[in-house]
Automatic annotation (TrEMBL):
The keyword Oxidoreductase does not apply. This is Multiple inositol polyphosphate phosphatase 1. Its main location: membrane. Keywords: Cell membrane, Disulfide bond, Glycoprotein, Hydrolase, Membrane, Signal. GO terms for molecular function: acid phosphatase activity; bisphosphoglycerate 3-phosphatase activity. Belongs to the histidine acid phosphatase family. MINPP1 subfamily. InterPro entries: His_Pase_clade-2, His_PPase_superfam, Histidine_acid_Pase_euk. It comes from Blyttiomyces helicus.
Length: 467
């Protein structure tokens, strides 16, 4: 197989862990292997007895779905997030600063075997590999591609480059994710995977113009809003006091949040739960998960009116593909797959009205409200999170139906009852988003491209240098 130059980091992944992840197939060859030092295999401890959730840094948990009785899937589409990656630049620098603090304070740390890792900690997530896809992410997408192609074999094969469409956001981790998905879907057929990789590159659009895959960057009104501050989990000060006493030197709340970030990435990337995660109680990890969800709720959720429109372009793409399949079944796309970001999936989920709580999320939520909330990002936008659309042709019916899956689990659309929704009803429910004028909503002075503006997309593809 000829790989284009996309870095994917090969990580040694420990065998223990709770989040479900597919093992690497023997046929997969990582691109540009890079081994991160992770130390000894983890041991059982209090935090490894629970799933470690952390908002968008959560590991992928797939659901399950059954075919709709007396119906045939005639088109399948998925819009998803890239697989597991290394931290981006900001956290990486914070981890290096913590490394210096721990080295400076090493003599003060008790000689406890459970704390020994703190004395020898070296930041494996260095800035030179910030934001890159890792092997776990490649495995996630490979397995996802294989499962989807197994569920819809007549749509994936025979492969037709004009009808099995792949698109990606303009970043290496998204492009690598699409390539891993294709390798899984087409059983490592190098000619097909190379064709798909080339097609994704040729269709790249600069992020600041890509209304489908990078709506936050492509929307001037959104980009001009002040950034929402990160929400710090409410028990962080108490955790700082407790852990400071445990380690023998003073830690600030900011140090504790960095340690929690390290817990998240050690869990997601390295499958390690017995180091930084072991410093926190299950209640603190749960509180941090809610704080992360609240941060992204304020930035991408139902908190602002503009957020309800950010996903309108990619939703329009999905609907136009459905309309094409109904009108021209012999030539329309059989499958369509886009690989982008959490900031793509969250706006799409909001445009569909999914995971919406009765009350807006608030830092003042009670424990019961936090536990019962619907907006749990681990359920729809973790690493490799995805939203899929099945177009169904059913016996004894002249109308087509649409079923939506999120992370491979069926979801009910608000206003459409349980299960699959008649397409005309679907189109009526989302009439305010389908065919939106994205540039007008965003106050863009330079046209963007996407499903809402197909001509603009056609004129702009191939002009984005890979970022």
């Amino acid at each position: 197989m000829t790989f284009i130059n996309i870095p994917i980091l090969a990580l040694a992944v420990a065998s223990a862990g709770l989040a479900r992840a597919d093992p690497v197939p023997s046929s997969v060859t990582p691109v540009t292997p890079f081994i991160l030092p992770i130390g000894p295999a983890p041991v059982t401890n209090q935090t490894s007895k629970i799933a470690i959730y952390s908002g968008t840094e959560s590991r992928y948990q797939r659901g399950s779905f059954k075919p709709v009785e007396d119906c045939k899937v005639v088109q399948f589409q998925s819009i998803g997030r890239h697989g597991t990656r290394t931290p981006t630049g900001g956290p990486s620098k914070s981890f290096s600063a913590l490394e210096k603090l721990l080295k400076k304070s090493a003599a003060l740390i008790p000689n406890d075997p459970n704390l020994a890792f703190l004395k020898t900690f070296v930041n494996p997530f260095t800035p030179d590999i910030a934001g890159e896809l890792v092997d776990q992410g490649g495995y996630d997408l490979y397995g996802l591609g294989r499962r989807f192609s197994s569920a819809y074999p007549d749509l994936f094969t025979p492969f037709d480059a004009t009808r099995n469409i792949f698109r990606t956001s303009n970043s290496t981790r998204c492009l690598a994710s699409g390539e891993r998905f294709a390798a899984g879907a087409y059983r490592d057929d190098s000619s097909i995977v190379d064709t798909i990789a080339s097609s994704m590159v040729s269709a790249l659009i600069p992020t600041t113009f890509d209304a489908d895959n990078d709506p936050d960057d492509a929307c001037s009104a959104y980009s001009n809003m002040p950034d929402m501050p990160d929400v710090v989990f409410t028990s962080a000060p108490a955790a700082a006091a407790r852990i400071s006493k445990q380690l023998g030197f003073q830690l600030a709340v900011t140090d504790i949040t960095v340690m929690m970030d390290l817990c998240e990435f050690q869990n997601a990337v390295q499958n390690v739960q017995n180091e930084f995660c072991s410093l926190f109680t299950p209640a603190e990890i749960s509180a941090n998960d809610f704080a992360s969800d609240l941060t992204d709720y304020q930035s991408y959720g139902y908190s602002r009116a503009l957020n309800t429109h950010l996903g309108c372009s990619v939703l329009t793409t999905a609907v136009r593909n459905i309309e094409s399949a109904i009108a021209s079944p012999a030539t329309a796309p059989k499958t369509f797959h886009a690989f982008a970001h959490a900031e793509t999936v969250m706006p799409l989920v909001v445009s569909l009205g999914l995971f919406k709580d009765t009350l807006p999320l608030s830092i003042n939520f009670t424990d019961a409200q936090i536990a019962a909330r619907k907006w749990k990002i681990r359920n729809f936008a973790p690493f490799a999170g995805n939203v899929a659309f099945e177009l169904l042709s059913c016996a004894n019916s002249n109308t087509h139906r649409v079923r939506v899956l999120v992370n491979e689990a069926e979801v009910d659309l608000p206003g459409c009852g349980e299960g699959a929704c008649e397409f005309e009803r679907f189109r009526t429910l989302y009439a305010g988003s389908i065919g939106c004028d994205f540039d007008a909503l965003c106050g863009n002075t330079v046209p963007s491209a996407g499903g809402w503006n197909a001509l603009g997309a056609a004129n702009m593809t191939g002009h984005g240098a890979l970022q």
